[in-house]
TrEMBL record, chains A, B:
Pfam families: PRA-CH
HAMAP family recorded: HisI
Gene transcribed to yield this protein: hisI
Record text on subunit structure and interactions: Homodimer.
Details of cofactor binding: Binds 1 Mg(2+) ion per subunit.
Every Phosphoribosyl-AMP cyclohydrolase domain range: 38-111
Molecular function as annotated in GO: magnesium ion binding; phosphoribosyl-AMP cyclohydrolase activity; phosphoribosyl-ATP diphosphatase activity; zinc ion binding
Chief place where the protein resides: cytoplasm
Record-level GO BP terms: L-histidine biosynthetic process
Catalyzed reactions: 1-(5-phospho-beta-D-ribosyl)-ATP + H2O = 1-(5-phospho-beta-D-ribosyl)-5'-AMP + diphosphate + H(+); 1-(5-phospho-beta-D-ribosyl)-5'-AMP + H2O = 1-(5-phospho-beta-D-ribosyl)-5-[(5-phospho-beta-D-ribosylamino)methylideneamino]imidazole-4-carboxamide
Protein name: Phosphoribosyl-AMP cyclohydrolase
Species, as recorded: Acidisoma cellulosilyticum
Length: 135, 135
């Protein structure tokens, strides 16, 4: 007999319009402040794991495998709520971000703003990337 | 002689990592409330027009042409700020949304939530889609 959780995950998965590469865009937003932290991609396996564990897991297109956010940096994302858009090709993840989301050590990946004088960095690193990925 | 605005737009465009289809993902967020409204796509022309006019213009993948948000519904988006992520393949648009962002008449496209009982609608339409697209 399948578990209730597995049935619920299947109910979500069948509403997702994965693209030709089997991926769906996922936007991570800090649940309480509303800050948009990053955008990445999920395949069905990453989405199912995220819903089952409530720890956010993406699919890394560059590495071609599951990317358990924070597995090397410790900067994990706890899933608070998951939303699906009207045509099913984008996910909004409301998360509780531990530390910083960006590999540059900044809280959000969206730290460059288009201003009249050109692209401007509007946030500084909170931690050193070297410290994040120290082995 | 090129205008300063055109030079600034070029400075942004050359930092964007458009995908194989010439598109970049664009997330629209209401600038003051933080609500994530929708995700769509831009090509270089749509992005340049958005920066020049401060009215958000996407590229419709289904129609294969520029999609000036609100051109048929009146539900326009005024650009307040535009952010680029660390690897240049996603944009965050801080906008002032007139009316509703979603073609279903809801404020946000992300109105379905994955809950233990399955997908649940967490927002009702604020206006009728028929009223939005009345000719």
């Amino acid at each position: 007999m399948r578990s209730q959780v597995a049935d619920d995950i299947d109910a979500v998965l069948k509403e997702v319009a994965f693209n030709a590469d089997g991926l769906v865009a996922a936007i991570a937003q800090q649940h309480d402040t509303g800050e948009v932290l990053m955008m990445a991609w999920m395949n069905a396996e990453a989405l199912a794991e995220t819903l089952a564990t409530r720890r956010v897991c993406y699919f890394s297109r560059s590495r071609g495998k599951l990317w358990r956010k924070g597995e090397s940096s410790g900067q994990t994302q706890r899933l608070v709520d998951l939303r699906l858009d009207c045509d099913g090709d984008a996910l909004l993840l409301l998360v509780d971000q531990t530390g910083v989301a960006c590999h540059t050590g900044r809280r959000s990946c969206f730290y460059r703003a288009a201003r009249p004088e050109g692209l401007v960095e509007i946030a500084a690193p909170e931690v050193s990337p070297d410290a994040l990925y120290r082995s």
